[in-house]
Design brief:
- The chain has about 260 residues and is an alpha/beta fold.
- It is about 45% helix and about 15% strand.
- A seven-stranded parallel sheet has the order 3-2-1-4-5-6-7, with helices on both faces.
Length: about 260
Amino acid sequence: MAGAKLEGKVALITGADSGIGQGTAVEFAKEGADVVVHYLDDREGAESTREQVEAQGRRAVVVQADIGDEAQVEAMFDHAVAAFSTLDILVNNAGVDGSGKEIADLDTPTWDTAIRTNLYGPFFCSRRFVQIRKAAGGGGKLLTVTSVHQDIPRAGTLDYDVTKGGQRNLTTTLALELAPLKINVNSIAPGMVLTPFNQPALDDPEVLEEQVQSIPWKRAAEPWEIGRLAVYLASADADYVTGATYVIDGGLMQNTGQGA
């Protein structure tokens, strides 16, 4: 793997059992990184990710945790450090989708789940990652997978849209706070991606065809495409990039104002 962009690095990727997390893990492995594969309840998917990482000649460990639970996050990082001695890259990817409920019908437990998973989770993970990097003398890459819905609201997804906006501000604030430590902090904001979040489109070609009509490129992204962007942001090529959100959406956000 000589010359690989992430040679010798160790990455922890939350929600790496499927979709964007799995695609990112495999792309990282192709570039020389060892990977901590986090999952919540899909052990089979996490083991599949581990096998794909190892097929690239890299090491992987699988760790289960509810990232909304502080103690479980601490245990996950303990496990990761025990396996690999340190961590160089964190990808906050795990999350829950919008409930589809408008505010009058949005119950508190559903709201709490979104807040704990999509905001507390990245906070707990980022805090521990920064502690590890400080002890190592600084440096490192902290990425958060947000969404175009940090900027494009949708009725019925208040829980999701609010937390994605919060993730954007996590990125921008930490970019300032961690600059003295030379820890780069950036976000990736995908549009439609062919993951379990879009299961109806995966299951039905007609649904997929209908949903991509608002995308100028007339297709959804594949998880590996998000992974390739993550490789860039996690590599030395992006050492001067911090506090940025990289939108990857086939032009969707440029199309939202057309026809007004």
